[in-house]
Amino acid sequence: xxxxxxxxxxxxxxxxxxxxxxxxxxxxxxxxxxxxxxxxxxxxxxxxxxxxxxxxxxxxxxxxxxxxxxxxxxxxxxxxxxxxxxxxxxxxxxxxxxxxxxxxxxxxxxxxxxxxxxxxxxxxxxxxxxxxxxxxxxxxxxxxxxxxxxxxxxxxxxxxxxxxxxxxxxxxxxxxxxxxxxxxxxxxxxxxxxxxxxxxxxxxxxxxxxxxxxxxxxxxxxxxxxxxxxxxxxxxxxxxxxxxxxxxxxxxxxxxxxxxxxxxxxxxxxxxxxxxxxxxxxxxxxxxxxxx
Length: 292
Fold this sequence. Notes:
434 Repressor (Amino-terminal Domain); five-stranded antiparallel β-sheet; elongated; single chain
């Protein structure tokens, strides 16, 4: 009996990560094209088709690219679509926000700001209620640009009454660097301010060209000498929980432990909550009771 030894040179090479991503990208395009009908995208129904879904040339027309180019994408060829092309494909294929983000991820292209990002951020009612129920322990929700979207009475007593501030000033960076009260709240203001700026810079780097971020950064540069001094350092830090030492005139210095939780269906919104073994719950409740 003769045993044939496979020639290693003839074995299929394993896919690289990029090749695998291209294959998944192509699969996504084909599957989403297949689930659409012409009326779904405003095209005439026409005669019955042998296969379900739109034709390649129809998707290409809707996306504003050539049929050949789109065909290459569905074939997993090594072509690298731009952000504009990806956004057009997502629109043509009627992708959901999650599918759109996945499309950009597979293409290894940072997505542009979603259309909803240009609108005012909306907080889910259940999350708003959760923040309120965490009283008397401080808690707040910050948005994509670190605007404070909700804060319970304890957080407003310990930090600042966010809801009493003008809407454009309900921002953690703006309060930290421009409000003299922030320097009294943070026992080590310089450390906290520098860390906050480094974390914000990491967030801003993920949104190049976002006009709202650019506007806030420009305002901070104009208003704060520390921002003008520290920004060129290019310090960045990840968002993380930890320990903060805060001062309140009624209780003195208090060490708080805080956690940062990402909102699953709105990942650029985060819930920040604080607890402390230094001060009794009744004392915190007393502080919160002074806030309407």
